Amino acid sequence: MLPVAKVSLRRLLPADLAVFFDMQQDKDAIHMAAFTAQNPEDKAAFEDKWHRILTDADIKLRTILVSNETGEQSVAGNVVVFPSELGREVGFWIIKQFWRCGVGQQAVSLFLNELKEPTLYARSAFDNSASIKILEANHFVYQSSETNYACGRDLDVKEHIYKRCS
């Protein structure tokens, strides 16, 4: 576990996209997230997706930063809220080197405080205990499950749906 002095959020910078592309190549992260890009190595599809995200006014996105004890900052992932068939949905992706040190939980908390939306939803693969822990720590409550095809595992996976009301 890495010592993390501070977690903060900022608007996305163009250089963050290269980090995000590398992030989605990690095999462990792909398996854990399950519901990922069909082909994580497809740079054109990645750029297309991010162009849509960055030009959609209904999507709110932040880059997650961590500062170590000397104040040096590193990109640790991203957190997003977007419209879905459920309503407004939260998603996040944390770089593996920052797993299990509280970065996700802190980043989601900061983002939720910034958003101040009354009702939000989130999803997690049934066995992604780290994501479930982050959601529950941020007052998301399990609502239901459904089974969907997960590109990251190339099979149908049960997905838990969570709801948070402020």
UniProtKB/TrEMBL annotation:
Gene3D superfamilies for this protein: 3.40.630.30
Organism: Pleionea mediterranea
Molecular function as annotated in GO: acyltransferase activity, transferring groups other than amino-acyl groups
Alphabetical list of Pfam families matching this protein: Acetyltransf_3
Start and end residues of each N-acetyltransferase domain: 8-140
Superkingdom of this protein's organism: Bacteria
InterPro entries in alphabetical order: Acyl_CoA_acyltransferase, GNAT_dom, N-acetyltransferase
Keywords of this entry: Transferase
Protein name as catalogued: RimJ/RimL family protein N-acetyltransferase
